[in-house]
């Protein structure tokens, strides 16, 4: 694919040279950039396996996502409605993917270090960046649109399809304009480190949004006859970019050329072209200046806050409450802080909390008619809610060993520890208290408000069962010290087996809990048994020796 893209540049060789750009240098820069893209996997992928066909893989993933949306839109009879939703989907997806997947490339300042000292003029560098971005958004937009393009060919013919392709490119250009404004706004407000944190949270929100859309949209469609949806044109319709483009398609398909559709045509073509010139002339130079300032800001030393003890009172309190040794307490506090600073750890773990919210709503509102409190109280659905955090605790502990900077873990071996099990146990307790405890408190509040205070023993037993199962899986695996293993060595097959084991264990525990709920006081009797089992497994984990560490 990289060779094909570079060949496509050859017809524009003369035009590019008239702009003061060295064409050979441009091709060399683009070849390197595209080759790096072809080896860079999606940020939502947990395993970073290097490959030479990532662009094709990404195109396939985007095409599948676009197909799912296209199938739902194909039943809409009104072209104005269907193409409005389609262009809104394309623009939103491009913006979200640009922010979540392409951020590391956009704010990468290595170009300044590598190319500036060499005999490469600034126009060549800027043109390489623009063409690189242009390729990426074209790649994304066409991949997302391929199903709807085929649908347009079948239903409306080749000329409507050609118009659609032009409008997709224009929509991509306008989205590029909006994305540049977004980045420049952030760069002027926050520092380099905070910018990266914001991007991580955006990636997390996008993962939750995808899961929510996948679970909730099919259920919402049962309430709506989407085939008969119609849209009237109002004054505010001229302020919505997807309507400009869909109005142009609607006028061409239905042969309507009134003032409204002509205005949509003018806005849909003129505004994206003007935004492209604005990006090249104004935003691109400012973006490069902002990148340089970002690079300088990132190199400055951060001042260490002097009120650390005041800020981490909760952490210190729980470390004293949960840890039995000084070494365990130290590991508890260290992992508490590191788990909040490791961006990749947060990006991998935090979406699970959103999934809990989505599945919790599905459990409570699975009736297609309405929410029936009496029916809910009479059921035992609280067991599903109580055991939902099991998937969070599994993710918390399984991702704890991996880091993008594993070489910094050398200090573990320099510690005067007779056995590293204290570090493992302190780390386990830290993430359980920091993440699982607030989650189960919120779920407990929901359950107690619906089913009453009599559910308190079930919540305690369920929480202990989750901790027991998670600690057993954590201790059965090959022990690895926290944030000490390179992420691309993660065993996907092993995680799959552990996930199956987790689901089976959760099902067994849930079944046992369900059976105990019919026997009076049986849950109260089971609580001290669960406490003893957790204590025994913790003691075993604390005794893990150095020769067991992977």
How does the SSE layout of this entry go?
Blueprint: H1 2-8, H2 13-18, H3 23-39, H4 54-73, H5 79-101, H6 103-106, H7 110-115, H8 122-156, H9 158-189, H10 192-220, H11 241-254, H12 259-299, H13 308-311, H14 313-322, H15 326-341, H16 343-349, H17 351-364, H18 373-378, H19 382-387, H20 390-398, E1 402-403, H21 411-414, H22 421-451, H23 456-476, E2 485-486, H24 492-516, H25 522-542
Parallel strand pairs: 1-2
Keywords: Membrane, Transmembrane, Transmembrane helix
* Spatial gap, N to C terminus: 40 Å
Number of helices: 25
Rounded Rg: 28 Å
Counting helices, strands and paired strands, the structural category is mainly alpha
Question: Biggest β-sheet: count, sense, barrel?
Answer: 2 strands, parallel
* Broad shape: globular
**Spatial strand arrangement across the major sheet:** 1-2
The percent range for strand residues is: under 5%
Number of strands: 2
Report mean pLDDT, rounded to a whole number. Answer: 77
Keywords: Membrane, Transmembrane, Transmembrane helix
Describe the structure.
- The longest helix has 41 residues, at 259-299.
- This protein is 74% helix and 1% strand.
- Strands 1-2 form a two-stranded parallel sheet.
- The chain starts with a helix and ends in an 8-residue tail after the last helix.
- By secondary structure, the protein is mainly α.
- Helix 8 packs across helix 9 and helix 11 (241-254) packs antiparallel against helix 12.
- The chain crosses the membrane at residues 55-73, 80-99, 130-150, 162-186, 198-217, 263-284, 348-367, 382-402, 423-453, 459-476, 496-515, 521-538.
- Keywords: Membrane, Transmembrane, Transmembrane helix.
